[in-house]
Amino acid sequence: LVLLPNTFFFLSRGKLGRYPPWPGKIVNPPKDLKKPRGKKCFFVKFFGTEDHAWIKVEQLKPYHPHKEEMIKINKGKRFQQAVDAVEEFLRKTKGKDQASSHNSNEEKNRRNSSEERGKQSAGEEKRKASFSEGRLKKGTGEGKKRVSSVSSERGSKSPLKRAQDQSPRKRGRPPKDEKDLTIPESSTVKRVMTGTVAGFKWPPSVSEPVKDSDPHFHHFLLSQTEKPAVCYQAITKKLKVCEEETGSTSIQAADSTAVNGSITPTDKKIGFLGLGLMGSGIVSNLLKMGHTVTVWNRTAEKCDLFIQEGARLGRTPAEVVSTCDITFACVSDPKAAKDLVLGPSGVLQGIRPGKCYVDMSTVDADTVTELAQVIVSRGGRFLEAPVSGNQQLSNDGMLVILAAGDRGLYEDCSSCFQAMGKTSFFLGEVGNAAKMMLIVNMVQGSFMATIAEGLTLAQVTGQSQQTLLDILNQGQLASIFLDQKCQNILQGNFKPDFYLKYIQKDLRLAIALGDSVNHPTPMAAAANEVYKRAKALDQSDNDMSAVYRAYIH
C-alpha cells in the first residue's frame, strides 16, 4: 500500500452515530517526529482546525465514497465548515493541475517547434558545409577537420535535446525522466479499500514541501520541535509517576493532541459548567475528540453553538451533575466557584456516591479545599484542575493542566485532558494545584506589567517601540507571549484573550498566599497596583495587555 501526502480521509472514531468523524488529509510529519509504536498509522491534518495527529489506519475512511454519508450523519456547523475547506482545497488543486496541464501542452508545442527549426537549421548547415567543401581545394585537411568538428558537435545531440539544454528548466518543474508521485484520489481510495498496510513508507515529495503548502503546520509545532530532546520527552510521558526528593508526587500525563492523535474518548458522560473564554474552547475540543458532553452556562444563549455541534443542554448545574459521570467547571473567581457548588440548584444537590467533580477555575487553596470537603462528604470524588493558557491556547487544545486531589479521577480524565491540553501535571493533595496556578499567573502578570513599562519608557525617551520588540524577539526573552502582547499594544488592539480583571484577581490571591506563609512578594505587589490603576481606567474587560494604558494616562 502506498499512501501519499494530500490523500483525503474521514477520521472515524468508534460508532459513527456516537463519535462524529472528521475530514482530514495525510501530510508529511516533521523529520524529527517519530512514528508511534504499535499499529500502522499516518500523520493527518484535520481540516477546519490547526490540529495534526498520528491516526491509526483502521480509523481512516476514504473521503469521496463516504462524503454524502458523513454529511447526513453530522449536521454541526464546524463539521460543514471543515468539509467546505476540503472542497475548496480540492478546487484549488484542480485549478493548479489544469494550469500545469496547459503549461505542459505549451511546452510540448514549443519543443515541437524547436525540433522543426532544428531540423531546418541542420539541413541548411549541411548545404553550407557541402558548398564550402567544394570551393576550398587548399587546406582541405583543416577545413574538413573544422567542419567535421562542427557537424559532430551539433550532430551528437538531437535537436530536441539541444532545445532542452539551451532553455533552462523552469523552477519547480521536475526533469522529464522524473515521474509525478502523486496518486489520483480515485486510485488511492481503491488501494485503501483493498490493500494492506505492510511495508508503508513515506515517499519523498516531488512537489512543494508540506511546510510550504501548509504554513500553519510548523508554526503549530514550533515550540515542540525547536528542542526535541527536551520538549518531546516532556509531552510523551503517559501518566508516569515521578517521585521527587521532597516526597511529592507528580504525574506528567497525556500526549499533546498535536503530536499524538490516538485519543480514545472515555465512554463516561461528561458535563461542563461555564462557557467563558476558556470553557468555550475546552468544550469545543472535547466534542471534536468524540466525547459526549452536556453543557450549562449562566447565560443560556452561549450554549446554542455547542448544541448545534452535538452537545446536550443541562437546565441547572445540579441536573448536569446528576446525569453525567464527570462534571467539569470553569468559572471566574472564588465567589463564582462557591455559588456554583453551594447555591440553589447547585452542583452539591446533584452529587451522589460515585459522582465526580473537577473544578478548573483559578481560585485560592482555601476555596478549593472547602469545595473538596463538601463534595467528598456527599460521597463524591473531587479533583482541582486549573489551566494555564489563554483563549487561543484553549481553542487550539494546547492548555497546560495542573491537577490535584483524587488521583484515580485524574486518570479517568486522561482522554479529556488530552483533548483540551498539551500537558497535564498531577501535584498531589487538594490545594497544591491552586497554589501553583497562582504562582504561575503571578509571574505572568508581573512580566506583562514589565513589558508595558518598558514600551512606555522607550516611547518617552524617543526610542522606537517596534525596534524594542524586534530586539527582545531576538534575545533570550523571545516568546509567543511577548510578541503577541507587544503587538496588542503597538496596534492598540486589546480584545480580551485573558481578561485584565482576572490577572489582577490572581495577583491579589498570590500576594495573599505569600502573606499566609510570611513570604514577601514586592514585585507582584507593585504589578498589582498598576493593574488596579488600569481597572480604574475602565480596562477590566480588556486584555491584560491593556495594563499599558495605566502608564500613559
UniProtKB/TrEMBL annotation:
Its main location: nucleus. GO terms for molecular function: DNA binding; NAD binding; NADP binding; nucleosome binding. Residues 92-145, 162-182 have a biased composition (Basic and acidic residues). It is found in: Chromosome. Residues 8-66 form the PWWP domain. Keywords: Chromosome. One of its GO terms (biological process) is transcription elongation-coupled chromatin remodeling. This is Cytokine-like nuclear factor N-PAC. Pfam families: NAD_binding_11 (PF14833), NAD_binding_2 (PF03446), PWWP (PF00855). One of its GO terms (cellular component) is chromatin. The gene is Glyr1. PANTHER family: CYTOKINE-LIKE NUCLEAR FACTOR N-PAC (PTHR43580:SF2), OXIDOREDUCTASE GLYR1-RELATED (PTHR43580). It comes from Nyctibius bracteatus (Rufous potoo). Belongs to the HIBADH-related family. NP60 subfamily. InterPro entries: 6-PGluconate_DH-like_C_sf, 6PGD_dom2, 6PGDH_NADP-bd, GLYR1_PWWP, HIBADH-like_NADP-bd, HIBADH-related_NP60_sf, NAD(P)-bd_dom_sf, PWWP_dom. Residues 92-189 are annotated as: Disordered. PROSITE patterns: PWWP.
